[in-house]
Design a protein that fits this description.
The chain has four helices and no strands. It has helices at about 1-70, 85-95, 105-155, 160-185.
C-alpha cells in the first residue's frame, strides 16, 4: 500500500507538470500564430503598397523615358513618382533609356523585397506555431494517460485480490513510465514572472 501511495504522489506531480507544460506550449503556439497572422497582414499591406507605387511609377517612367528620348532633363519638373523610382530606377533609365521599369533590379528589389522578408518571417512563425501546437497536443494526451494511471492506482484501494491489485499497479506503472519517456522528449518551457 505504501508503494501505491508513493506512485499516486509521483504520478500526480507528473500529471500536474504535464498539464502546466501543455498550457505553456499552447501559449507559445497562440503567440506564434498571432505573429504569423500579423506578419501575413503586414506582408499583404506592403505588397499592395508596392503595387500602387509600381503602377504610379510606370506612368512616371514612361514620361521620363519620353523626356529623355527628346533630349530633355529627366530630373526637371514635378513628378508623382515614388522615392524608390528616383533613387533606384532613374539611374537605370540614364544607363539604358530603352529599358523597362521592371528590368531595373535595384528598383524592383527595393520595392518588393521588404514584403518578401516580412512574409518569410511570418512563415517562420507559422512553423513555430505548428511545433508548439504539436507539443501541446502530446502533453494533453500524456495528461489523459496519466489520469488513467491515477484512476487505476486509486481503484486498487478497494480491490482485495492481491494478483489483480498487482496487475493494476503494474499496468499503471507501465503507463506512467511510457508517459514519462514521452514527457522527456518534449522541450520544457520555462515560466518567467
Amino acid at each position: 500500500e505504501v508503494s501505491v501511495v508513493m506512485l499516486l504522489g509521483v504520478i500526480s506531480v507528473i500529471t500536474a507538470w504535464a498539464g502546466v507544460q501543455s498550457s505553456l506550449h499552447s501559449g507559445q503556439s497562440n503567440k506564434s500564430l498571432s505573429f504569423y497572422m500579423e506578419g501575413l497582414n503586414n506582408s499583404n499591406n506592403l505588397y499592395l503598397t508596392s503595387e500602387l507605387k509600381y503602377r504610379t511609377d510606370l506612368v512616371v517612367w514612361a514620361d521620363k523615358q519620353k523626356t529623355r528620348s527628346q533630349g530633355g532633363d529627366i530630373n526637371a519638373g514635378y513628378s508623382a513618382g515614388s522615392a524608390e523610382l528616383f533613387e533606384f530606377a532613374l539611374p537605370c533609365l540614364l544607363k539604358n533609356p530603352q529599358s523597362q521599369l521592371a528590368d531595373c533590379a535595384p528598383y524592383m528589389d527595393e520595392l518588393y523585397l521588404p514584403q518578401e522578408e516580412v512574409m518569410n518571417q511570418a512563415m517562420e512563425s507559422l512553423k513555430e506555431y505548428e511545433v508548439s501546437n504539436q507539443q501541446s497536443d502530446r502533453l494533453q494526451m500524456l495528461t489523459a494517460l496519466l489520469a488513467v494511471a491515477l484512476f487505476m492506482l486509486g481503484i486498487t484501494s478497494v480491490i482485495h485480490q492481491e494478483k489483480l491489485q498487482f496487475a493494476i499497479v503494474l499496468g499503471a506503472t507501465i503507463i506512467a513510465i511510457f508517459s514519462i519517456a514521452i514527457l522527456f522528449s518534449v522541450p520544457v518551457v520555462s515560466v518567467s514572472f
